[in-house]
Amino acid sequence: MPERGLIERYRDRLNLEPDDPIVSLQEGTTPLIPSPHLSNRVGAEVFLKFEGANPTGSFKDRGMTVAVSRAKGRGVQAVICASTGNTAASCAAYAARAGLRGAVIVPEGKIAIGKLAQALIHGARVVALKGNFDDALRIVRELSQKHPIELVNSVNPYRIEGQKTGAFELIDELGKAPDALAIPVGNAGNVTAYWRGFQEMGASPILYGFQAAGAAPLVTGKPVEKPETIASAIRIGNPARWEEAMSAVTTSRGRIAAVTDAQIIDAYHYLASCVGVFCEPASAASVAGLLAHGLPTVEGDPKPETVVAVLTGHGLKDPDTALGKAPAVISCENDLSAVERAVFSD
């Protein structure tokens, strides 16, 4: 059975060589979930693009299938990345699929357990760096210049090529582009990619990018030396796609804003308990931003009527946060009346 991932669906719109192989885990075609409950709160029709349904549980698979396919086509034997977790998991999985060696550099003690488990079980060489993500990215860039190894972070142009297909899917599913897109911003590759995809389709929705308050360099206008937030996937102090992301947001007449960890966790709980979608904390930044900041527009522009909030990763990526913030498990005796009391008591 032929692979039917996003490369096969959109290859004529991707900058690959004709003889590049397809390294795919059938990524993409992720759910676009309408949310009447959230729509009422925001004052517009809101859809959730749930990227946690990708093969490794995050949007990173969109870019990784294209980057690793091009690397395989070039004949490289290994791929490497710096990561706060999701890129590591995706890199490791696609390297395994391609028969390549995978190596990932992660900040020591700053990666969610679910993502670390994925990278390890897929067979990647995982190195825990005594530093932050920005340190790790600097080092892997230097390594890729010294050795014949492909760097597959979002500085790789083929990552952006793959991730722009999220915009294609939204237009395919909605029949047109949404009026606005809300998206978490960490290394800023995803907001850059969505804008490229929309532009290639002749669309210009308003972009609302949201960073964690403790890691908000695009909001403050300067790098954050020691970024801190519970949302590990966007704990980045110096985004690699800074200028492109800011250009995209400005051109779209949108904005970048910050949300606190408390607002992120409130949105995380809300999505799980009221909407039925379990995403990782960083993903909830898009919804936290909509709830905290609304839908601001430039004077004279109409208020968006349709909004897509991108949920970038699955909640099982970070089980520790879920268990730490969820209600306790109720211990109960092996007795019908005891179970009744446990189930039905307030």
Topology:
Elements: H1 6-10, E1 32-34, H2 36-42, E2 45-50, H3 60-74, E3 78-82, H4 86-98, E4 101-107, H5 113-121, E5 125-129, H6 133-146, E6 150-151, H7 157-163, H8 165-174, E7 180-184, H9 189-200, E8 206-212, H10 217-220, H11 242-251, E9 255-259, H12 261-275, H13 285-293, E10 306-311, H14 319-325, H15 336-344
Parallel strand pairs: 2-10, 3-4, 3-6, 4-5, 7-8, 7-10, 8-9
Antiparallel strand pairs: 1-2
Helix pairs in contact: 3-4, 3-7, 4-5, 7-9, 8-9, 9-11, 12-13
Summarize the structure.
This protein has 346 residues and is of the alpha/beta class.
Provide keyphrases for this structure:
15 helices, 6-stranded mixed β-sheet, 4-stranded parallel β-sheet, alpha/beta, single chain
Structure description:
- The protein is of the alpha/beta class and 346 residues long.
- The protein contains 15 helices and ten strands.
- It has helices at 6-10, 36-42, 60-74, 86-98, 113-121, 133-146, 157-163, 165-174, 189-200, 217-220, 242-251, 261-275, 285-293, 319-325, 336-344; strands at 32-34, 45-50, 78-82, 101-107, 125-129, 150-151, 180-184, 206-212, 255-259, 306-311.
- It has a six-stranded mixed sheet, with helices on both faces. Strands 5-4-3-6 form a four-stranded parallel sheet.
- Strand 3, helix 4 (86-98) and strand 4 (101-107) form a beta-alpha-beta unit.
- Helix 3 packs across helix 7 (157-163), helix 7 crosses helix 9 and helix 12 packs across helix 13.
- The mean pLDDT is 95.
